[in-house]
Amino acid sequence: MADLIGVVARSRMPQEERRAEHAPRVPILDSIKRHPRRMLLAIGVAFGHNTLACIGSIFTVTSAEELGYDYTESLLLQVAGSIAFTVAVPLMARLSDRVGRKPVVILGILAYGAFFFACFPMVNGHVLTLATVAYVLVNVLMAAPQGCIPAFLGEQFPGSTRYSAISATYQTGAALGGGTAATAATALLLAFDGDPIGVGLYSGAAAVVLALCAWGLRETFKVPTAELGSATTADRGAKAAVDAMTGRGGSATVSPPGPSACHALGPAASTGPSRRSGAPPRLTYEQALVARAARQGRTVSSGTSRPSR
């Protein structure tokens, strides 16, 4: 069923133009060389997410029975939490498409980490209804990062290295965080003589790590697929200015602008000083205005003059 839903969802996605990209011989090494900061931040996001996910799913399974709930009650708590999680994940993903990945991930995970301090007292009350509410809220808050992080991390890297980069960063973070979370939480519970404050502090620390690392990554929910993983916004703006000046979408360093571009940009574009072959053209004030207007879909009259200071 999950495979069928995936096929239907993929078939309804808009098809964007494919562009040939240079594929490095060793994509993971290329990612480490070109994007070391993104790699480390992505590992931090995966570490925090898997730590909290494992505490919220694996640790709470056994803790309910240890707190005095029978097997049936513990199973009902897990079923209620799973249903809430299944419903909330696509809703959180949809929300991130509207308001951004970072707000949903950061606010959701901070609320998730903070709620752990209230979750255990609610469960310790041995009131099944109250415990069910606690499990539902835990899973709803856990769905906030879960619905965004797979896309959010993948969108940080260019298509030529995306699979290798996302696999390496996520699995490293999952091993460091998820592989030790349940054991660490149990050890903290024993160290604090059954007081869940240790688990709450551990969860809060993991939430802070995730939030800080997510904050350091680029917001991507409005970035076109073809531009994912590109260098910086400033670099794209500079390239767009040169492209607008030459009147075409290719590189501006291969040949000088044609007559139409020279007419639009003024006499300086055709009568300026000679340049070294391959050097990018220098923009006058009027040319910069035209290039900026072209990026914003506006027009600028040829009589525009430099403002007086």
3D structure, described in words:
The protein has 309 residues and is mainly alpha-helical. The protein contains 12 helices and no strands. It starts with a helix and ends in a 14-residue tail after the last helix.
The geometry reads as elongated
- C-alpha-based Rg, rounded: 26 Å
Low-confidence stretches: 232-239, 248-278
Q: CATH homologous superfamily of the largest domain, by name?
A: MFS general substrate transporter like domains
Helix-and-strand structural type: mainly alpha
End-to-end distance:
67 Å
* Secondary-structure element series: HHHHHHHHHHHH
Question: What structural keywords apply?
Answer:
309 residues, mainly alpha, Growth Hormone, Chain: A, 2 domains, 70% helix, elongated
Could you give a short description of this structure?
This protein is mainly alpha-helical and 309 residues long. The chain has helices spanning 2-11, 27-34, 36-66, 71-99, 101-124, 128-154, 162-191, 197-216, 233-246, 259-265, 268-271, 285-295. It contains twelve helices and no strands.
